[in-house]
Amino acid sequence: MFAERLKSSMQAAGYDTRPSVLEREFNLRYWGKPITFQAVRRWLRGDSIPSQEKLQVLARWLSVSPHYLRYGGAESNVVKEPSAPWDIEQTPEEQQLLSMYRKLPLPQRKVVHEVIETFAKAYSDATILPKSE
């Protein structure tokens, strides 16, 4: 039944239920080792179910709950996530950067991600000093 829920969620989100589409869209959103065409084909045939980590990525992408994808039906005792910190208005410069980022091939996106992550770690504890004139 996992395969049917995955297919219906993909259709509801406006995607074709082909392995090549699932492979591409999943790998664009997952920062771990890319999954293979064969792996997603097994998901779509119902031969296997992804790990919980991968299930979380699928659920976020398809705007469904991980519980629904894995088990189906309604959830009880759902924990709601707070709104994302990026749910703020973007400046034109930020919009331009995001647009350029989205046009990059996946390997370059991962490099940009690693660079930003490195800067974020390096400056997370740094005290910002005012500019001296």
List keywords for this structure.
59% helix; 0% strand; 133 residues; 2 domains; 434 Repressor (Amino-terminal Domain); mainly alpha
Descriptive report:
By secondary structure, the protein is mainly α. It folds into 2 domains: 2-71, 434 Repressor (Amino-terminal Domain) (Orthogonal Bundle), CATH 1.10.260.40; 92-123, no CATH class. 59% of the residues lie in helices and 0% in strands. The chain contains 7 helices and no strands. The chain has helices spanning 2-12, 19-29, 37-45, 52-62, 66-71, 92-103, 106-123. Helix 2 (19-29) crosses helix 3 (37-45). The radius of gyration is 19 Å and the shape is elongated.
End-to-end distance: 65 Å
Largest sheet: none
- What's the total count of β strands? 0
Named at the architecture level, the CATH assignment of the largest domain is: Orthogonal Bundle
Structural class: mainly alpha
**What overall geometry do the principal axes of the alpha carbons give?**
elongated
Looking at the structure, the CATH topology of the largest domain is 434 Repressor (Amino-terminal Domain)
Q: Quick one: CATH class of the largest domain?
A: Mainly Alpha
Helix content: 55-70%
Number of domains: 2
Radius of gyration: 19 Å
Estimate the mean pLDDT confidence. Answer: 81
The CATH superfamily name of the largest domain is: lambda repressor-like DNA-binding domains
Uncertain regions spanning at least 5 consecutive residues: none
Tell me the series of helices and strands, N- to C-terminal: HHHHHHH
